[in-house]
Design goal:
This protein is of the alpha+beta class and 166 residues long. It has two domains: 9-20 and 76-165, no CATH class; 24-70. Helices cover 39% and strands 33% of the residues. The protein contains four helices and seven strands. It has helices at residues 9-13, 23-42, 46-74, 155-165, and strands at 15-21, 77-89, 92-100, 106-113, 124-129, 137-139, 146-153. The protein has a five-stranded antiparallel sheet with strand order 4-3-2-5-6. It has a two-stranded antiparallel sheet with strand order 1-7. The longest helix is centred in the middle third of the chain and has 29 residues, at 46-74. It starts with 8 loop residues before the first helix and ends with a helix. The model is unreliable at 1-14 and 154-166 (pLDDT under 50).
Length: 166
């Protein structure tokens, strides 16, 4: 199986992508929260309160991101969209994109990416969305808890991936 990233669009257009949970991301998030709680338990006064609150905030953000991604991937459709805006930030990138849903209507979305890959306006990005509500969507590079592997590809895209890897 081949893992796809946003720059593999010619293959992703002709392949069925399957999400795979990234256990290491969840474990790292849990470890950070546990370490902060440990520090809070060993501290006293305002420092302890700060570490409890910081740990709770990190846990809440991670759970929120996971729930959003998992809900989207329970029943999803993928489409290839076009980047309409791209802005570098100090930590990550902000993008705006447009894609066409199954019914032919065009939708827009925006997302923050932690990817270090350069993207440019007018470029392509794979977008996952709910077929009954395409306003619920995420571009492939913005998934934190999931990576994607191909299930079924046509012969041309498989040959292209093999020649790229060797």
């Amino acid at each position: 199986m081949t893992e796809f990233r946003s720059n593999d669009l010619t293959s992703a257009q002709r392949c069925t992508l399957r999400p795979a949970f990234r256990w290491h991301v969840a474990a790292l998030g849990a470890l950070i929260c546990v370490m902060l709680v440990f520090v809070a338990v060993t501290e006293h006064g305002p420092k302890a309160i700060f570490f409890y609150l910081f740990s709770s905030t990190i846990a809440a953000v991670l759970v929120s991101v996971f729930r959003r991604e998992a809900a989207l991937l329970q029943n999803y459709v993928s489409a290839v969209g076009t980047l309409t805006a791209y802005k570098k930030r100090r930590r990550g990138r902000d993008i705006k994109y447009r894609f066409r849903a199954i019914e032919g209507k065009s939708y827009e979305g925006e997302s923050s990416l932690w990817s270090l890959r350069d993207m440019r306006e007018g470029g392509s990005v794979v977008v996952f969305y709910k077929p009954l509500d395409p306003t619920l969507n995420l571009p492939l590079p913005s998934f934190m808890f999931y990576s994607f592997t191909s299930l079924a590809c046509d012969a041309e895209s498989v040959e292209g991936k093999i020649s790229e890897k060797t």
